[in-house]
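May I ask for a single protein's sequence together with how it folds?
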Amino acid sequence: MSDPQIDPAGNTQQFRAFAQRKEPEAAPQKRSPAVPIAVVVAVLVVVAIAAYLIL
């Protein structure tokens, strides 16, 4: 049976491949749509209050 956790230091080529591998980069975080939605809601509230005061 082979061990699933092979020590890369046991073989020079395996160690070099291990040492030179790149970690996957994290995906850039997308902007949350909550901020634009909050702005739209705030504008609607201000317009509703202004319309109420005018009428």
Remarks:
- The chain has a mean pLDDT of 77.
